[in-house]
Design goal:
alpha/beta; 22% strand; 7 strands; 43% helix; binds S-adenosylmethionine
Length: 264
């Protein structure tokens, strides 16, 4: 299962792939988590900075920190959002003091943390007692339309490898119940779950396709690993599966969200 290494990609490729949904999803996650002006916040697994940017708009750069193990993403985040405290670090070892934040958020990240429970505990450690820890994950098995259609096409073109890499199967935390269990196991209280929906517009199918052969994310890594003939077959199967072509279209994506309070 490719994790962090599939995100050592260019910010441009990420932005054109799932990053297209990130800003709208971030606005929904911030609302769900109850982030208010005046709070100090941390974005864990910030990527090129979509959620970080929405937090900066609401709170100001001085109240926002961000962390990600991908150097190109942290560089992009710093360049896009001057004044934020952006660090190259994974969720398992956050270089921040205990109780440093009122809210710690992470968007589409927990499935990429090698020890998810340790990562969520670390997010709780840097959040003050009574503060919140909140996250979202894609509904990979269902209504994240782009990724569901991608893995269905991958299974058609290469049944064995496609099934083994399908994020709807391999991701550990893929629904509200699993997320709530993870949050409680990490010691969080008053745990609530919800559903978030975001959408993205595409000029045409090639606008959707181009980041995939660059290897961005698990789907991109799978696409890049195929020999040319199978990659062309995947291109055609995905286009057919989505029922789109040379004109503009829009896709929606569903994510599950979770929020809990740090005890004390
Ligand atoms: C799907 S992207 C989400 C990026 C961003 N949060 C967004 O919503 O656009 C997953 C992110 O998790 C990061 N990541 C991978 N392993 C991680 C870890 N152990 N701790 C924190 N973040 C990690 C990746 O580098 C990548 O930026």
């Amino acid at each position: 299962m490719p994790g962090a290494e599939s995100f050592r990609a260019s910010a441009k490729a990420y932005d054109s792939f799932v990053g297209r949904y990130s800003r709208e999803l971030a606005t929904a996650l911030i609302d769900f988590a109850g982030v208010q002006p005046g709070m100090r916040t941390l974005d864990v697994g910030c990527g090129p900075g979509a959620l970080t940017g929405v937090l900066v708009g609401l709170l100001g750069a001085a109240r926002v920190a961000a962390a990600d193990p991908s150097a190109p993403f942290v560089d992009a985040c710093r360049a896009r959002l001057p004044g934020i405290d952006a660090v190259e670090a994974g969720a398992e070892a956050l270089p921040f003091a205990n109780d440093a934040f009122d809210a710690t958020l992470s968007q589409l990240v927990v499935n990429f943390i090698p020890d998810g429970e340790a990562g969520v505990r670390e997010m709780a450690r840097v959040t003050r007692p009574g503060g919140v820890v909140a996250s979202s994950v894609w509904d990979y098995a269902g209504e994240m339309t782009l990724l569901r259609a991608f893995w269905d096409a991958a299974r058609e073109v290469d049944p064995e490898r496609g099934a083994a890499a399908d994020e709807g199967v391999v991701m550990r935390w893929c629904n509200e119940g699993e997320l709530a269990e993870l949050w409680r196991a990490a010691g969080l209280r008053s745990v609530r779950t919800g559903t978030l929906v975001a959408s993205a517009k595409y000029a045409d199918f090639d606008d959707l396709w181009w980041p995939l052969p660059t290897g961005v994310g698990p789907a991109g890594a799978f696409c890049e690993s195929l020999e040319e003939g199978k990659r062309a077959a995947l291109h055609d199967a995905l286009r057919r599966g989505l029922g789109v072509g040379d004109g503009p279209f829009e896709l929606t994506a569903r994510a599950w969200s979770v929020v809990g309070r740090v005890p004390g």
